[in-house]
Amino acid sequence: MNISIDREKALTQNWEGIQKMSRPGNSEKYPFGENLNRIMKTLQMSQVDLAQKSGLTQAAISQIISGDREPSLGTIVKILKVIPVKFEVLVARNNDPSRSEQEPLK
Predict the structure, then answer these.
(1) Would you give the end-to-end CA distance of the chain in angstroms?
(2) 57 and 51 Cβ atoms separated by less than 8 Å
(3) Spans of all domains in the chain
(4) How far is CA 81 from CA 25, 74, 77, 90, 96, in A?
(5) pLDDT of 18-50, one tens digit each?
(6) Higher confidence at residue 5 or residue 95?
(7) Taking a C-beta distance cutoff of 8 angstroms, is the pair 84, 105 a contact?
(8) Could you give the CA distance from residue 16 to residue 1 in angstroms, rounded to a whole number?
(9) CATH code of the domain made up of 5-17+31-91
(10) Are 28 and 21 in contact (CB under 8 A)?
């Protein structure tokens, strides 16, 4: 899956704004790890599966899911190449598990 330059630029701009909001001391946090974990469960994908397919370590994925590590934009791009969801679904604050927004990237 190739991410176009325009889409990558938009992801970068969105991610910079998200990082500002999720820094320590800011009460609004994006539940990236929770969303990733929920999506992985829906896809019946283990941390080991995601690690092998994305080139990340299982430890890194575990830390992201638990909230101990904030993923870089590069890490998010690697995850998006494996998990067929939109960037916005992974970073959404109010990602209701009953909604089916797991649309493939176009």
Answers:
(1) 9
(2) yes
(3) 5-17+31-91
(4) 31, 11, 6, 13, 23
(5) 555 444 454 455 588 999 999 999 999 999 999
(6) 5
(7) yes
(8) 23
(9) 1.10.260.40
(10) yes
Task: List the structure tokens of 77.
Answer: 């791009």
What is the rounded CA–CA span in Å between residue 26 and residue 84?
A: 30
> Which residue type is seen at 45?
M
CA distance 29 to 21: 7
Exposed/middle/buried for residue 39 (C-beta within 10 Å: 0-12, 13-18, 19+): buried
Rounded CA separation 64/34 (Å): 9
Residue-wise pLDDT tens digits, 64-77: 999 888 899 899 99
pTM beyond cutoff 0.70: no
Alpha helices in the chain (DSSP H): 5-21, 32-42, 47-54, 58-66, 73-82, 87-91
Residues with Cβ within 8 Å of residue 38, at least 6 apart in sequence: 95, 97
